Amino acid sequence: MSWVSISRYLTLTIFIAVLLFKAGCTADSKNNHSESVYMRFYKRFQTILDTPGMRPSSTWREPTHINLSINIKEIIGVDEKTHILITFIAVRQLWFNEFLVWDPNEFDGLDHVTVPVEFIWTPDFYIYEFVGEDLSPFTPYLSLHHDGKVIHDKPIRAVTSCNLDIFYFPFDTHSCILTFGLYLHTVNDVGLGLLLPSEQLLKDSLQSLGNRGEWELLNITGNPVPFHSRTENWAMCVFTVKIRRRPIMYLIKLVIPSALLVLLDIMSFFLPIHSVDRCAFKVTLLLGYSMFLLMMNNILPNNSGGTPLIGGYFLVCMALLVASLLESIFISNVLHRKSLQDREVPGWVRTLVLHKLAQLICYKKKVSNKQQDEENIYTIHINKTENPVWKTSSQTPTSMEMRLLTFLKRTCEDVQVMRDTLKKFQARKKSSKEWMEVSYVLDILLFLLYILFIAVTSVCLCVLWSHWYRV
Fold this sequence. Notes:
This protein is of the alpha+beta class. It folds into two domains: 3-246, Neurotransmitter-gated ion-channel ligand-binding domain (Acetylcholine Binding Protein, Chain: A); 251-367 and 412-469, no CATH class. The protein has eleven helices and ten strands. The chain has helices at residues 3-25, 35-44, 46-49, 198-209, 248-267, 277-295, 309-340, 347-360, 371-375, 389-392, 399-465; strands spanning 64-79, 84-96, 112-116, 125-127, 141-145, 149-161, 173-182, 190-194, 215-228, 233-245. A hairpin with a 4-residue loop joins β1 and β2. α1 packs antiparallel against α2 (35-44), α6 runs antiparallel to α7 (309-340) and α8 crosses α11. The two termini are 63 Å apart. Keywords: Cell membrane, Disulfide bond, Glycoprotein, Ion channel, Ion transport, Ligand-gated ion channel, Membrane, Postsynaptic cell membrane, Receptor, Signal, Synapse, Transmembrane, Transmembrane helix, Transport. It catalyses: K(+)(in) = K(+)(out); Mg(2+)(in) = Mg(2+)(out); Na(+)(in) = Na(+)(out); Ca(2+)(in) = Ca(2+)(out). Pfam families: Neur_chan_LBD (PF02931), Neur_chan_memb (PF02932). Residues 254-459 form the Neurotransmitter-gated ion-channel transmembrane domain. It is a multi-pass membrane protein.
């Protein structure tokens, strides 16, 4: 007696013991069956149960039709780097075994029974897209009904390949395919069909999933498709699973903090342009945003097939912070370096900035009532007398008068030097005011362009991300 026969005998013994134990536990139930009923059932179909490799068909020319349905219990995760979808699904297989048909009245109303899977023929299904290790739990039993209907529910932890498009991350939608086929049997042996319509598949899966996890299920469609190879035709059943990411976590962790940093940079334009704190503040923001990108590097998907749109969003935010810092540096250069070199505002700059650009941005120059007085405050009028008093007299000036005359000449020369210095200071102050006006106009103009660019970029991103809702 071989080990296979001994193992099979022990399995049958355990099977009968399980049935008897079940009957004993349900002694008060409506479907209670005695030991003799199960013994008669086993003796009736012993030949069929002893030949589990035989396909349930009276003739080999007629194929066995199998109907499939899937129920997605959990979407475990999606790996964007390796294009892998991990799901936990329950697969129901239904077919008819014409050799296992009986009248329930002959067995005291026994209309169905649970038997081990190794006792009868089962199809050799597998998933074409399966790429990982099979960690699915093993189900040792299946249900057998009196009309020959066989139902086999099998849980599968499916690790399948899926072509992921992460361009709209985190507002991305993916369509993954699960292709169920047979390894040995062709269409001449086994035919495939759908057990439930696509609407019912989606409804059952949504009830199992609920409202949890990062991913939500949008749709499930099933379609039996024959596969033609060079020599044989194979039956396949293709299920298309459409899922969408819930982006709320990524909005809180990525999009909103980045937008707040840009908002702080916008508010920094209201700092005085002649203050050094503006540049220091913008440099601090730039360093903080760089650290933010380093921390978020592990969250962003790294896909060789393309760059997600959110990567462009972060790049634009970084470019805006850099451009804002460059703008502050440019304005500081115009405000300080030009004025310190005692350079007057060129005529073309005065015409272009203080007139045309100022009118474009509706900038009005403040005119003070004391401006004219401040311009003439350093103006000193010195009347030079051609004929001194002593020249009109016939007397010859004394030594005291000569010393006084020399003192007055020196005093006049010193006053003239002071007058020239004050005029230069007045001209420099006027030039500084003009350069400051130029700086104000350029700062306001660049600020408006900055706001305009942010608005256009935000609208474009919103339009692109709104494609997420077009499912």
